[in-house]
Batch of 4 targets.
Target 1
Amino acid sequence: MINGWMTLTKCLSSFYVLSGLLGCFVLTLSSCSYEGGNEQPVIRKFTWFSYIAAEDIKATCLRGSKTQYRFVYNGVYNEQVRTYDITQVESDRYNIKISVTEEADISSYPLDINNPDFFEPWKPKISVTNVSAKDIGVLRQTLKDAGYFDSLPPSGKLSSINFYWVISTCMDGKFHQNAYYWPDKKFKTAEFPNLLRIWDFTEIPINPPRSTSKLSIYGTTETKYFRNHFNLNFGRNGFLRQNFVK
């Protein structure tokens, strides 16, 4: 947590001299490295691309490293984002931290005057549990069955107003990344979401895929009203990168 806030402080200080909050936000999104603390709304905003690209996992994925998995479900970015961080803590035990962020409902937020937390409406619902190495073996098999290890990532853009999974792993000292987007067949037939659902105790149902458009999400076709609109795509190296859209 401390590292996360320190990272945010460093990133913000670099852009205080810029005029306009939007310019600061866009530049900072592409510059801040994720170092933890994504349960804090401000940190999550400023380090999102680093987080979803799993730069922190990639940087520490060396021979002898513990196994790590990161699943990110984009159910329209402004509506619902689900993250699943799975880390090996012992040879036969894994920790799973699940975080679900939805659109903030400020209208029903009870503010504690004595101890105000103005970011509370934007904080995610978090669930933490442990599973066995055998369970993770089943998860790994579902990824193998879905072509995670031996298929190329999507060649098209992953839009923030669409539905997709981005998965990053460190196994046996090797970093790997892939994605599944709706309505592609691989998305529909993948079994890993069903397994993740069993371990999810947030009690928040997944936002089901549907056809979307800029008009249906933003209520307008004027780009100046597009909030949190961005694309992701995979580079020639097979790893995720961001592409801002305005």
Note: Confidence is low (pLDDT under 50) at residues 12-30.
Target 2
Amino acid sequence: MSMNGSAARLWLSSLLAAAVISVAGAGEPTVTPPVDPRVDLAKKIPGAKVEELKPTSVPGMYELTRGTDVGYVTSDGRFYFAGDLYDIQQGVNLTDASRNGARRNLLATIPESETVTFSPANPKYTITVFTDVDCGYCRKLHSDMKQLNSLGVRVRYVFYPREGPGSEAWEVAEAVWCSPDRADALTRAKRGEDIPAKKCGATPVARQYELGHKLNIRGTPGIFTTEGEYIAGYLPPPRLLEQIKASKAN
């Protein structure tokens, strides 16, 4: 069967168009997205979540962060290392950096409205202090408040009655919170004065106590800088200021 010139050209054009469509339809080969190795690793560690794992600068080792607990696990999920990891060349404690970051995230959950704050007019530094009204060193720290404020240190108090719910310190903490002037009531409580028990509905004491556990507070006063560094226990104001400055420098 023969075709005239016009028919032949039409047939050839259709054939070429079909070929172009066929090639275009083939497109690029399908690319399978890479599998996150943390998914498989998390399955090998009881209770672990993918977001708790991150690669380290050490080949074959991942960092595992739970709350403020930081450890290291091999990529096959077989070995776990507890302790601090140092970059010797840089002179940096890598574990501290991760731990401080975790603390900052937890401290950021405390609303300013749920703290009892003592501040100078123009603060240069802020610390968050977990306090127990019956703790001797907490009382000593509070007696330094005027000097701390004069050094530019703003103190945010939250409650951490060490003996837990139902203890006398817990009841005093709630009485302080329910007082019309919380700063004055806290000062008087730390002097050993009686604070009349009042009910004012829910208080933040239980939440702050639980947060203290998450932060692994080992005693009171438990002091945290804005960078997340933990200062365990009382320091005289000049030494405390040195620690605060060092934390900012790091």
Note: The first strand starts at residue 53 and ends at 55.
Target 3
Amino acid sequence: MSDELVLFDVADRVATVTLNRPAKLNATTQPMMARLNAIFTEIPTRQDISVVILKGAGRAFCAGHDVGERIAKPPFATGDPLINEQRWVYNSLHNYRTWLWDIPQPVIAQVHGYALTVGLELAMQCDLVYAADDTKMCWRPVSGSGRYMHMWPWLIGVRRAKELLFTGRYISGTEAAEVGMINAALPADELEAHVRSVAGQVARVPLAFLALEKQATNKAFDLMGAREGQEYAATVHAMCHRTEDGIKITDETYTDNWKEKIAERDQRYAQA
């Protein structure tokens, strides 16, 4: 397989974007996100693309951010760490939403293995989500407020959303489909064919119609407060990072022995 961090292919009006760090369960890095940005900046300009499939190579969709990489956050006018953190989180929120939610073409997430933190954020911004029934998904509450997990109150109801956000427990593909978080869960060996079939059906519709239907549906979601909820959650996410506990957890995580520290963290917060 190619050593590119993200693969990009177009055939029969269907674009396939593949996260390609299988040895690391497609954990994201800054170069990987830069490649995603380039791809999803190009896609809206392409009249030969009607629908996009976002998937992961190997054993997982995306296991979150690679904690072996410390993120270099750009300087901002203010030296206040909370404001700086807030601006950085807002920028990432804008990127993800611009890439997936706001582009004209429908985006289908094909999820398997693990979809954790950033991986789950990416999936939740897609228009359609199909997962293997044994997929494990979760947002760890000690990772800070989930910017896109705050779509959950509208998708699965406020009480179930709070349960998942407060406990950080794993939710399977099967359960995610049952509660309406995703479109459907399928046996792992049937997932690829099903997503390809759906993408093929979508690709037969004129792109202008798809773009307008997506825009109208997204507008209805926005009018229910989903966009404002996500933006407020971005502020809360930054605040979580700057609390005493947030700083401690971050410092513990980004160390050479990060695997041991994460195991200790998960046991401490009963998030195994």
Note: The mean pLDDT is 85.
Target 4
Amino acid sequence: MDVARTFRACPEQSEGSGNTELKVGATVVARRPEARVDNGRRMIYPIVKYGQEVLEKPSAPVTLFDGNLEKLVADMFETMYAANGVGLAAPQIGISLKLCVIDASCGKDANSRIVLANPEVITMEGEQAEEEGCLSLPDFRAKTTRPLHATVRAQDIAGKEFNLSGEGLLARAFCHETDHLGGKLFISHLSRLKRDSIKRQIRRMIKAGEW
């Protein structure tokens, strides 16, 4: 998740090469390119952009809570911080799992790190309309209506179920990231006119080799 006033100002990054396999349980779920280094942080995965199928289909549930999942979560946090995001869903790195990470402090407070496996928004109250963006739709932002308060039910990194409530930016992040796990992006909440305008711009960028 990328909210314009809070998060996007990526520093220069240097490229690495090579790749390794990532497994969750016995299944290879991605081939991981070598990290790009950003001031000591390692951006383990490139961000998948809008137009890739993985972003527009429902993800599979997390069923194995093991060391491989812990490593994936750690890599997702590093990828999110390197991209100056406050939220990142597994489909955004090409992995179709119901898993997301959130840190509304942008890495400033370790206690703000949230891991949601198999999350579901169970209550929503109030309304807020703020500009919203997405790491998978770089440079596109629009005022998006979300609940002011939201509660999610999810499992933690060990598989333990819990409920968590948030308001403001955190409630927005809960909704934004769980949308990703259902194959939806924030533009699905915009008017058809605005959504079609963004899609046309992206098609032109793809044709020009700029996406």
Note: The CA atoms of residues 59 and 96 lie 5 Å apart.
